[in-house]
């Protein structure tokens, strides 16, 4: 009974936290839209850093980039932001957060084989993990920080590997009719959106093939 109550309490807390974070992100995007003008893309890019370090999903920012700035500018801002944010989390995990990350490795037993593989092909492994996200994006930043992958290879592979999904989300953002749709209401994809997402997945498959 106590375990059930505890699980219910945890679920409610997580649900409320998610709602709160979504509202903050929506207010942030509204601020960017109304007050920042040409500085908007830069501020959006920088916003990825705290979100990624705190392991907060940044898909709302990615959609918002497409909605606010269109495909070219939105993609550049989101792509750079996601890469810089992942690099910041990687550096944090490799330095002052290393002991915490190591303590969490036991929760991801399959990652051991990944860590061993990075010793031979760090760039390819990181690229494949970004193209095919078998692990949560934000946690992956920290898990990879305790591998021998150099920061330069990590960021380049992450940048390339995240391009297809970033491009798909930015495009979806460009098709939204209202800023409120960034946080809800975009799950009912049109045929065009599905075609674009499938194209992104096919691009991922091609990149994986080229890696081998």
TrEMBL record:
Record carries keyword ATP-binding: no
Keyword Membrane (UniProt): yes
Coiled-coil regions listed in the entry: none
Keywords: Cell membrane, Membrane, Transmembrane, Transmembrane helix
Main location: membrane
Location within or outside the cell: Cell membrane
VTT domain sequence ranges: 56-174
Regions crossing the membrane: 39-61, 68-92, 125-144, 156-174, 194-211
Membrane topology: Multi-pass membrane protein
GO-annotated cellular components: plasma membrane
Protein name: VTT domain-containing protein
Species the sequence originates in: Salix udensis
């Amino acid at each position: 009974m106590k375990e059930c109550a505890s699980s219910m309490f945890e679920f409610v807390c997580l649900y409320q936290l998610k709602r709160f974070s979504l509202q903050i992100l929506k207010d942030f995007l509204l601020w960017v839209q109304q007050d920042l003008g040409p500085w908007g893309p830069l501020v959006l890019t920088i916003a990825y850093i705290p979100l990624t370090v705190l392991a907060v999903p940044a898909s709302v920012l990615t959609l918002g980039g497409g909605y606010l700035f269109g495909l070219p500018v939105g993609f550049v801002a989101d792509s750079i932001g996601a890469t810089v944010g992942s690099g910041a989390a990687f550096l944090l995990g490799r330095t002052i957060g290393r002991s915490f990350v190591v303590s969490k490795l036991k929760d991801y037993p399959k990652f051991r084989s990944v860590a061993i593989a990075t010793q031979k092909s760090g760039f390819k492994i990181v690229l494949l993990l970004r193209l095919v996200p078998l692990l949560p994006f934000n946690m992956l930043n920290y898990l990879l920080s305790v591998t021998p992958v150099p920061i330069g290879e990590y960021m380049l592979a992450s940048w390339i590997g995240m391009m297809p999904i970033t491009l798909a989300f930015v495009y979806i953002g460009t098709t939204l009719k209202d800023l409120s749709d960034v946080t809800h209401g975009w799950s009912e994809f049109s045929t065009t959106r599905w075609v674009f997402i499938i194209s992104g997945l096919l691009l991922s498959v091609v990149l994986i093939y080229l890696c081998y």
